[in-house]
Amino acid sequence: MASTALTAPQVAEPRGRAGRRSTGRRSGTAPLHPASPRRGASAIAADLALALVGVAFVVPLAWIVLAAFDPSASVSVGLPSRPGLGNFTTVVEGGQTLRPLWNSTVISMGTAVITVVVSVLAAYPLSRYQMRFRKPFLYGVLFATTLPITAIMVPVYALFVALGLLGSTAGTVLFLAATSLPIAIWMTKNFMDSVPVTLEEAAWTDGASAMVALRRIVVPLMRPGLAVVFIFVFAQTWGNFFVPFVLLSDAATQPAAVAIYTFFGTNGTISYGQLAAFSILYSVPVLVLYLVVQRVAGSSAMAGGIKG
Prior knowledge:
By secondary structure, the chain is mostly helical. The chain has helices at residues 2-11, 17-21, 37-68, 86-93, 98-128, 134-144, 149-163, 169-193, 197-205, 210-221, 223-238, 242-247, 256-259, 272-297, 302-305. It has 2 domains: 47-84, no CATH class; 95-300, MetI-like (MetI-like fold), CATH 1.10.3720. Helix content is 69%, strand content 0%. Helix 5 crosses helix 8 and helix 8 (169-193) packs antiparallel against helix 11. The termini are far apart.
């Protein structure tokens, strides 16, 4: 019995460096397992699905680019036999591009500016003050974002006729801003919540009012968020077809989203080349605005405001 007790510790495996060597691998390295056939099949299926989605996006874009430079463009995708800028020249010289693009710029810019300003003023008390009916109000705003625009266009049309605003660009801008406000308030409030309240408290200590703190402290720190809201509202308004089509009956005030409808002629005749050229010109302003706003808004960082 005594000898057994003495020899028991000798048969235990060492737990030091030698014990780690006996495992046949270095410490901290995971054991290698062969790839599962089922895992490989899932990866292949995922790659195929992503490739199909990519093709679904690339083919229409390729058709637009190729058809814009093809004088005899059709609905099928193919390389132009005699590429040229004839479609762009016809669209620009015919007066079918500049006026509608200018109308789209005025409507979209006005809607985006009004929406951003009002959403900041509406989101500030929702973000900074504890109110009794704040949650019901926010839920009401969230419900307003789910209302389809087609469901309210009949009473809106009747209202515009009664007020004499039918065909008015300013009235259309105000209505589009009102429809964009619910989602803009939610987005602006989320961005405003990330701005520390301590910065405003320091400004209040120095004698600044709430509006001064909002203008000089909160708004500069949330410029990237406001840029996101601005681009979102601008892009939505730029591509809105139904509202201007109903409220703006005069061709001289209609935006490009409605003017593009003129390329679909009567009796099934469609100018595919001019339609593709107009589509490219139609998408350029939004891309340019995105790049400009991203560069301007990206120059401010919240980290600099809370530093020190």
